[in-house]
């Protein structure tokens, strides 16, 4: 019995030590995350003045994802990813369609782009900023899509969402504004081998050439928008 009791105590001590160690490990990770977040925020403040941005602004950059090159070639534009700027709890966030649709801290979003270059655009008719009621309508329109999976196939349903589709639908449903020209897949330049390889990877030999598509380039070039930042 004494041996069993000793073994039981030893196991209890080991469990407690492991529990404490796990807690300390997570505390170290959390502190590291906090330091990294503060570092990113300082870097962001060096990149731009907080007052230069307004909720509802659109932000574009050159993604470094596996499909970015194909998007750039097919649309003849360097801008392959985009999102909507909101301020949540005093910090700028990008509402974007990645995996899944989510809010991403602006500093993190900028760091993901090629060379940390980005362009911010705004509705011409918004003046300095959209009205609070308009921002509310935009957020209400986007909320049902939060958490949806990213759409690798660029379909037009809401089951899965890609970046420019998210912007187009949020602005159309929230404010009745259609940003950019809707196209079909067949309208893009599909001639480059890199584009063709990506199409075969996604669709095989059955290309949905009549699928409705909105590209980052189409929104970027919308006459409804004006450039407010180019960094």
From TrEMBL:
Originating organism: Hymenobacter cyanobacteriorum
Keyword Membrane: yes
Keyword Membrane among UniProt keywords: yes
Domain of life of the source: Bacteria
Protein name as catalogued: YiiX family permuted papain-like enzyme
Pfam families: Peptidase_C92
SUPFAM superfamilies the record matches: Cysteine proteinases
Keywords associated with the record: Membrane, Transmembrane, Transmembrane helix
Coiled-coil regions listed: none
Transmembrane parts of this sequence: 12-29
NCBIfam families tied to this protein: PRK10030.1
């Amino acid at each position: 019995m004494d041996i069993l009791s000793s073994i039981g105590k030893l196991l209890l001590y080991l469990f407690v030590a492991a529990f404490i160690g796990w807690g300390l490990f997570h505390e170290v990770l959390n502190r590291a995350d906090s330091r990294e977040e503060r570092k990113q925020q300082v870097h962001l403040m060096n990149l731009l003045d907080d007052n230069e941005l307004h909720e509802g602004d659109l932000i574009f950059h050159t993604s470094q994802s596996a499909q970015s090159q194909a998007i750039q070639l097919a649309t003849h534009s360097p801008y392959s990813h985009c999102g909507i700027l909101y301020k949540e709890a005093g910090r700028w966030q990008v509402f974007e369609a990645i995996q899944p649709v989510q809010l991403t801290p602006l500093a993190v979003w900028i760091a993901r782009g090629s060379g940390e270059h980005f362009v911010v655009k705004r509705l011409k008719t918004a003046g300095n900023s959209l009205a609070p009621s308009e921002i509310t309508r935009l957020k209400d329109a986007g909320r049902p899509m939060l958490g949806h999976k990213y759409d690798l196939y660029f379909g037009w349903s809401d089951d899965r969402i890609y970046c420019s589709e998210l912007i187009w639908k949020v602005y159309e449903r929230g404010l009745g504004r259609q940003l950019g020209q809707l196209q079909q897949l067949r309208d893009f330049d599909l001639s480059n081998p890199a584009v063709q390889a990506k199409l075969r990877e996604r669709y095989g030999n059955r290309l949905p050439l009549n699928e409705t598509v909105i590209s980052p380039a189409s929104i970027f070039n919308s006459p409804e928008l004006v450039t407010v930042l180019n960094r």
